[in-house]
Design goal:
The protein is α+β, with helices and mostly antiparallel strands. The protein has a single domain, classed as Aminopeptidase (3-Layer(aba) Sandwich), CATH 3.40.630. It is built from 4 helices and 7 strands. The protein has a 7-stranded mixed beta sheet.
Length: about 160
């Protein structure tokens, strides 16, 4: 079940995000020294700042336990950016990530959007393939001096007359 998060949910949401992204940090040798702003090191204060800036934050629950997280922000008129889609490692491979992503597609459509963009670690082929399998297309890459990886950009676009519920 997906529900919108409230301010008091954010400390637990930060823990879910950190735990979920720790597997990525480990796989790509990311540390607080070489990549201090990576999602695996997020603190509740940062989420609270994003919440106050208007990010739409959602939690995925199984039996009342928060096991997943995602947020959306409006970038342009009909374009939203997806942030930090996360499922706790012990709950992966059960379709929960896809359910959360599908929820975001429906939500964007409800908000009169027609595109979702995302930035990922370009070298994370498994993740890139997962987003591709979920109708995202690769739109480019950028190398930032302060990051030990290349950022890959992907986008999903609404197909007219398709039902996303």
């Amino acid at each position: 079940m997906v529900k919108e998060l409230i301010y008091s949910d954010l400390p637990l949401a930060a823990e879910v995000i950190r735990t979920s992204f720790a597997t990525v940090a480990k796989e790509f040798n990311l540390t607080e020294q070489n990549c201090p702003k990576h999602t695996s090191f997020i603190r509740p204060e940062k989420l609270q700042k994003y919440f106050n800036q208007g990010l739409l934050m959602y939690g995925f629950y199984e039996d009342e336990r928060l096991i997943g997280y995602v947020s959306l922000s409006k970038k342009e008129d009909r374009v939203f950016e997806l942030h930090s889609l996360a499922i706790l490692p012990e709950y992966r491979h059960k379709g929960y990530g896809k359910q959360l992503l599908d929820f975001c597609k429906v939500k964007v459509k409800e908000l009169c959007g027609d595109k979702i963009t995302i930035g990922i670690i370009e070298e994370n082929i498994v993740l890139k393939d997962w987003y591709t399998a979920n109708s995202f297309v690769h739109t480019g890459t950028k190398k930032f001096d302060h990051l030990p990886f290349t950022v890959g950009y992907m986008m999903w676009e609404i197909i007219p007359n398709k039902d996303y519920v």
